[in-house]
Model the fold of this input.
Amino acid sequence: MNVRGPVGVLCSGGLDSTVLLVEMARAAGRAVPLFVRAGHPWEPAERASLARFLAAVNAPGIAPVRELAVPMADVYGGHWSIAGDTPGWDAPDETVEIRGRNLVLLTKAFVLAAIEGWPTLALGALAGNPFPDATPEFFADFADAASRAVGARIEVALPYRALHKADVVRRGQALPLELTLSCNRPDAAGRHCGDCNKCRERVQAFAQAGVPDRTVYVRCR
Done:
């Protein structure tokens, strides 16, 4: 992985972004996890999961988490990602879209990167993501426009854009992946519900990767 550091990594505490964070720290020497709070109900559980993962990994190249607040409840209103009526296990991908999600994640991060002097921001976008703000063309166009806006050239790195979630599981199988959280409705203890679209993706990825899944699910299918 050729990347200039320090690198800011958009890191939710999910499987893809945490593995990416560790790999970016190894490749660049220093990676700064950026946790964005937009007002989604699963964020407290994600943040706690990220803290547990980082404590277990204890990687010297990973900086303390930087939290960014980008409240979106006034825009998303009654959308499932705010109201909590999350799509279930069999829901198709198009039903789980959070419109402009990557736009929201990157905008404030770009300003921070310019102020801090980071030349690179990295995201764990995967192959097959069907949404318009997850294409290589979007990221390239956004990087050009945002770099002009902040007066500094900042690259958007997408190391996993040709990978599927099972590939990421294989890459990170030596890490404590059970401490990551990929769920839209975790319970009060921060456990995976085992019944939402994100849990289905996670369960299937471990199975396809042939890697034991040590994740605790409230509902086991």
The chain has a mean pLDDT of 94. DSSP finds eight helices and five strands in the chain. The longest strand covers residues 31-37.
